[in-house]
Target: Protein phosphatase 2C-like protein
Amino acid sequence: MNITEEWPTNSGRVCQAPSVDGWLKERGALWQDAPPFPPRGARAGVPPLPIWYGPDLDAGSVRDCRAGQNVRMRIDLASVAGSPERPNEDWVSAAIPALGGGVVVLLDGVTPPRGDDGCVHGVPWFTARLGGRLAELSGSRRDMPLDRILAEAIRATAAAHGDGCDLSHVRTPQATVVMARWDETQVEHLVLSDSVLLLQAPGGGVAAVVDDRLDRVPRAALRSEATADALRNAEGGFFTAAADPAVAARAVTGRTPRGDVRAVAALTDGASRWTDTFREGDWADCMAVLRKEGAEGLIGRVRAAESDPARPPARHKRHDDASAVYAEL
Ligand SMILES: [Zn+2]
Model:
């Protein structure tokens, strides 16, 4: 884009950035898409976009200013517990690192069957530890690919359990993982187990990235706790992030040129059921809901569908923990 304007930063210095019209034209967006709040460092006569999230820069430092491309970004997330009697086992986070680009991380803790799981901590402890490490590393270590970050986060979380937990137990706390990280050139993604990542192209088309190993397991096999345990993190079964860093090699990973992605979304299965279970709309419709109504709007639609007396109960729980994060790049 060659249309640029100068923008004030908090320090009063000037950062050169794409103009509002250029920014909107590049993304095929409309003026009414602009968020209503004023930018940092706004002054009279300066229109409300673009927003510069990066560090204050020396005047005329165009290269540094454009390096992260955080000219304007919208990230929206929500997480709603399936039951007020149980802790929410989902975990969701987003980061806009000062060095530019962004990260979203979403986990769905696997609810263990009743009985021993070898751990004194529990699933919410595990997802908080694992998610926190994933967010920290993906936001600070751009030199590490996402599968290496997942392996390191699993290793660190396993060490944090301490000696009081039996990490060889097949039901040791575990979770699904979705990560997306972008910079000025590419969007990286990682999906492990049955949470969903959506990538939307500038033209509006939406691709779903899924790890469908769990879907390929016969339903009958999962009805028995013994057979489900035998398939958990086992060849021919399905894989989750638990205590073995080697599982990171099983994740679905990929990279997409940044210019081919307008928005990303990550959904736990409690939220993705709006499309993949209830068939209320396809993935493009799901992205449209996220864009217009936000993550909370999508989860509200899921809850409405779940409460419809004409609809048969969902596969496992009537209401599951539901989380969604939506980012317009
Ligand atoms: Zn533990």
Notes: Residues 283-306 form the longest helix (24 residues). Residues 119-121, 161, 165 surround zinc ion (CB under 6 Å). Residues 167 and 243 are 6 Å apart (CA to CA).
